[in-house]
Write the structure tokens for this entry.
Amino acid sequence: MKLRWSRTLTLLPALALALGLTAAAPAAADAPTVRSGWNNYSCKPSADHPRPVVLVHGTLGNAVDNWLGLAPYLVARGYCVFSLDYGQLPGVPFFHGLGPIDASAQQLADYVDRVLAATGTSKVDLVGHSQGGMMPRVYMKFHGGADKVNALVGLAPDNHGTDLDGLTRLLPYFPGAKQYLDKLTPGLSDQIVGSDILNRLNEGGDTVPGVHYTVIATKHDEVVTPYRTQFLNGPDVRNVVLQDLCPLDISEHVAIALADRVAFHETANALDPAHATRTTCASG
């Protein structure tokens, strides 16, 4: 029994680290405050950018650290930008996205309503990284969000789950590991290929009517694997691979959201397709 639990406890940190590579240095406890112009609830969308943008962090991320690059980039282009913390576990500060995904989707629903009320708009655009690119689909399908979202942009989203380069297939060889993961970090367990929430989410089609979808992926993703499982099928979907736009792009799962200017430019194009410009290695 001691040997079995030793193996279990050896595997779990690896899974948590792999699924949680979105984390950066911890922010202050009052993370969802105005920083570099975002989370400013007095911001009113302009005629050029008529919808607020809500940024949805990934596993082990938070409302600030995940967006230190993209949020100021969008604010500088005239968008009202907001971000939230979700998926908190008791006694775990700073690092979020670990709670059950269905509960996180309800948190997103409540936050979107708050942003809509503050900005006086009827719809938002959502941009999410990793879990944050997939979880909004749960919000739209099961929590009444379809009529409140114009576009969803996913940066390395785990839309069909991940096998972590085969690591999750080792779970059956570590007795108790899956049950331990389900109990302590359900948000991680929910992202594994074949989870109940993912099966329900993708049953009957990947998309909901009326929402514009963009997926931005990188061939170098080491967390959401295989990377093509990130893609969506359905009407009004655009699946993008960074290396098709810039063969020299070496961004992996973390950098695509934190610092990749090619991904940022594609995000801006997705938010304002009427004024989209060609994305190249020099985009910025």
In short: The first strand starts at residue 53 and ends at 56. Strands lie at 53-56, 81-84, 124-129, 149-155, 212-217, 237-241. Confidence is low (pLDDT under 50) at residues 1-18, 20-34, 165-171. The chain is about 35% helix and 10% strand.
